[in-house]
Design goal:
It is found in: Membrane. The chain is mainly alpha-helical. It is 76% helix and 0% strand.
Length: 322
């Protein structure tokens, strides 16, 4: 039997037992008591990734194609499920209560057990998502600043936000779930040796840029609501707004720079053409190997390795969005 205030929750067609059993007070208490551990996790993360790069410097790269397929598939399924379970609440609130409620009232946790449960999972998921970088290090792929900076700041931001039940976070959660559902699905297909059209990669970065613009806009609205309605009317602090705008703006600048260098700049196009030409040359050479089928397999593997390098260099979208 549901125990929810249906006036501020959508009419879910089905609610799982583990969602209905969610008690937000317990999770908030745990997070308030433990959220500062996130700084230790970030410190360990930095040691692992940069120490790992040093360790792998003179060692052959790992392929890890199978684990990578499983990893990306699991994260894509999780993100898709999260998007489907949180988006209805945001849409319902916007339709029936308007923008102010969506930005200033944390009913998505306090009165909606479904959205609250997936909000809790969203916050926790930022810790295991650090594993994205482990694959980059072990496969000796380019590790750009945007990637690890984004991972660290999102982790800290998410855990801290949950301690305050930041009301505007419902927007960020839904957007992040949606973008990650597309992004991880794309990477799962790439790891499984499928080649989605190039415009999909551009679409993902465009979605991430849109996410950053909306994130800044939500914070501007929150600031306006605090000014016009008073600090007691909106469950968000001015300090949080300032930090959030700074973070989202920095993301926008970094993603915009990445988009330009990857898809628009002449140098980016030249690199892609050279890599494609090199892949074709190696395939042609190795396919004539006297070992017959073994030669063909080697050629295919070589081509895939080169394509993997190009993909990671050009489409480092795992510097996720939030």
């Amino acid at each position: 039997m549901m125990n929810m205030d249906i006036s501020v929750t959508p009419n879910y067609s089905y609610i799982f037992d583990f969602e209905n059993d969610f008690i937000h007070q317990r999770t908030r208490k745990w997070m308030v008591e433990n959220w500062t551990w996130v700084f230790y996790y970030c410190g360990i993360y930095m040691l692992v990734i940069f120490g790992g790069q040093h360790f792998m410097q003179n060692r052959p790269r790992f392929q890890l194609r199978g684990p990578l397929i499983i990893w990306n598939t699991m994260l894509s399924m999780f993100s898709i499920m999260g998007a489907f379970r949180t988006a209805p609440e945001l849409i319902h609130v916007l339709r029936h209560y308007g923008l102010f409620h969506s930005v200033c009232v944390p009913s998505y946790i306090e009165q909606d057990r479904v959205c609250g449960f997936w909000t809790w999972l969203f916050v926790l998921s930022k810790l295991p998502e650090l594993g994205d970088t482990i694959f980059i290090v072990l496969r000796k792929q380019p590790l750009i600043f945007l990637h690890w900076y984004h991972h660290i700041t999102v982790l800290i931001y998410s855990w801290f936000s949950y301690t305050e039940y930041t009301s505007s976070a419902r927007w960020f959660i839904v957007m992040n779930y949606f973008v990650h559902s597309v992004m991880y699905s794309y990477y799962a297909l790439k790891a499984a040796r499928y080649n989605p059209p190039r415009f999909i990669a551009m679409l993902i970065t465009s979605l991430q840029l849109t996410q950053m613009i909306v994130g800044c806009a939500i914070n501007v609205w929150a600031h306006g609501f605090l000014k016009t309605h008073g600090p007691q009317s909106c469950n968000i602090s001015q300090t949080y707004i300032n930090l959030s705008i700074a973070m989202y703006f920095s993301y926008f600048v970094l993603f915009a720079r990445f988009f330009y260098k990857t898809y628009l700049s002449p140098d980016g196009n030249k690199i892609r053409r050279m890599a494609a030409s090199l892949a074709a040359q190696n395939t042609a050479k190795l396919s004539t190997n006297s070992n017959g089928d073994d030669g063909n397999r080697n050629a295919n593997n070589k081509k895939l390795d080169i394509n993997a390098d190009l993909t990671m260099a050009n489409h480092m979208h795992k510097a996720k969005a939030q």
